[in-house]
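Might you be able to consider the sequence and fold that I enclose below?
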Amino acid sequence: ALDQHPTAAIYPLFMADGWFTGTALPDRLLQHGRTVLPPLGLDKNLPLLAADILTDRLHDLDWNMRKTRLLIAAHGGQHSPNPARAARHFAAVLGKVTHFTDIRLGFVEETPLLTEAAQNLGPHTLCLPFFAANGHHVRKDIPAALVSAGFEGIVLGPLGIAPQIPDLIAQSLRQSDRQKDAA
C-alpha cells in the first residue's frame, strides 16, 4: 500500500515517543522518503480534542466542569521516562484549556500510582484513560486500581479510540502534506 503513496507520512498510534517511534520506524521508513509524524499522545491538537470530548461528556451528565475533578490514568514506564513525560505534558496543556476543580495524573507502572491518585476524589470525577486502545491496562489494570482506591466517579473510554481521533489523524496528515508542498 505504501508503494502506491510514495510521499505518505506515517502517524504512529502510540501515546509517547520511544525506541519504536523514534528509531525503528524512522530507520525503516526514512530511507524510502517517508515522514514519521509525532505519535498520537504528542499530537499538539490532542489536548484540545480531549477538552471537547470532556466538555461534551460533562454536558451529557449535566455537570459543571468547575465542580468536577479529572483523573487521567496513564501508562508511565519502568524503562523509559517518555510515557510519563507525554502524559504530564498532556495533563498540563489540558489544564490550561479546561476549568476542572482538580486534575490528577496516576500511572499504571510508576508513581504516582493510579491507586494513590484515585483516592478521595468523590463521585463528581471523570477518569480519562490516556491510552491508544482498549488493551489489557485499560480493561484490567485500570479498573482494578480504581476499585482498590474506592473510586466513585465515571470511567471514560481510552482517548485513543474516541470517534474524533480519525479526524485528528487526518488533520495532522493533511498539515504534513501542506508543509511538504511548501518546502
